[in-house]
Design brief:
Number of strands: 10
Shape: elongated
Structural class: alpha/beta
Oligomer: single chain
Radius of gyration: 28 Å
CATH class of the largest domain: Alpha Beta
Distance between the termini: 75 Å
Number of helices: 14
CATH architecture of the largest domain: 3-Layer(aba) Sandwich
Helix content: 40-55%
CATH topology of the largest domain: Protocatechuate 4,5-dioxygenase, Chain B
Length: 362
């Protein structure tokens, strides 16, 4: 998967489920619902292909197959050249081991020490999204395991920070990446709650609403206890996604409750650098300090205001101002001083109000 026009960093992302029922299709499943889930994933996959990433990173968690007793890494990359699939996805799945090794080293430089494996199998928790996105077993992927089920798991804030570091690492490597967070929404495998009462629909609806609005930071409000309580223990993969892409609205958002899982699907398929909202109180530009001194004098000193009103040119001469700043000071229009020249609103507002009061008093 290579770019024609080079872009670096995370260019597409997704947060999707991986319920085995999506593949095994037992009689308890609603076939029409499964079709809708597949269609949503296919739509996201189409967006991934348009983004043309260099690498495809798939983030998910072991379910007690390999990492539950001997070694339980918090984060682990697969660095082999292939991995064996399970269940309905048997056979070999191609792995981009070179990219995996490079990411291990890049994440070490970011202050993380992820483990790596050369021969771990890939359960359907990795391969269901790959297939339903429209990729095949020959599409090279970089599997990233995050420990979700075996306590003590990485803290949600650590997962978010890992995602931030992952995005920086990909950019520093000069690569573009699409990332899939595979897991969730709420379900309770192996517990008495799995079938009854089942998913925590109220928690899932809140999560869906927040992410659909682009508020990915909301996931940080869910601590480890809340993730466990609400059955959203797998959202550690989504937290990595949130850290990697920040707050942004998804192009695809689908919510499908089910008796055993809540299927939530999000696709960010047109990721561009985030534009910061305009600040009401921005930093004072370094080259506006002298003008700020002039405005501060007018805000705090009656004598300065009186001098300005009696001889504005002479008042302006006291300060080392550019021609643009001098003209704005003499004009004394709040919008220009505050919004165009970025003089602090408290200085602009305070100066103009004191001048008004001095005019009334004179």
């Amino acid at each position: 998967m290579h770019n024609e026009k080079k872009r670096t960093g995370i260019v597409a992302a997704a947060a999707v489920p991986h319920a085995p029922q999506l593949l095994s299709l037992p009689k308890s499943e609603d076939a029409q619902q499964v079709a809708r889930v597949k269609a949503a994933m296919q739509e996201i996959g189409d967006g991934f292909r348009k983004a043309k990433p260099d690498i495809l990173i798939v983030i998910s968690n072991d379910h007690g197959d390999d990492f539950i007793l001997k070694s339980i890494p918090a984060f682990m990359f697969h660095c082999g050249n292939r991995a064996r699939g399970h269940d309905g996805h048997t056979g070999w799945w191609k792995v981009d081991g070179a990219a995996g090794y490079a990411l291990v080293e890049a994440m070490q430089e970011e202050g993380f020490d992820p483990a790596f494996t050369l021969d771990a199998d890939l359960g359907t928790f990795f391969t269901i999204p790959v297939e339903y996105f429209g990729f095949d077993q020959e599409t090279p992927i970089v599997p990233l395991f995050v420990n979700s089920y075996v306590a003590p798991q990485p803290h949600p804030t650590r997962c978010y920070a890992f995602g931030q570091a992952l995005a920086r690492a990909v950019t520093r490597m000069g690569l573009s990446a699409a990332i899939i967070g595979s897991g969730g929404l709420s379900h309770y495998p192996g517990t008495a709650r799995y079938a009854s009462p089942g998913p925590d629909l109220a928690a899932d609806e809140k999560i869906y609403q927040k992410l659909a609005e682009g508020n990915l930071h909301y996931l940080l409000s869910l601590d480890a206890q809340e993730l466990d309580k609400s059955g959203n223990i797998e959202l550690r993969a989504w937290l990595i996604i949130a850290g990697a892409i920040g707050d942004r609205r998804p192009e695809v958002a689908t919510f499908e409750p089910n008796w055993h899982h809540t299927y939530g699907m999000f696709g960010w398929t047109n990721i561009k650098p985030l534009e910061r909202d305009r600040l009401w109180y921005p930093p004072t530009p370094p080259h506006r300090v002298e003008l700020s001194h002039a405005m501060h004098a007018l805000r705090t000193d009656d004598a300065a205001c009186d001098f300005y009103m009696s001889d504005p040119l002479a008042f302006a001469d006291r300060f080392d101002l550019s021609s643009e700043e001098r003209a704005a000071l003499l004009e004394m229009k709040e919008e220009r001083l505050r919004d165009e020249l970025q003089i602090h609103p408290l200085l602009v507002g305070g100066a103009t109000r004191r001048l008004q009061l001095r005019k009334k008093a004179s």
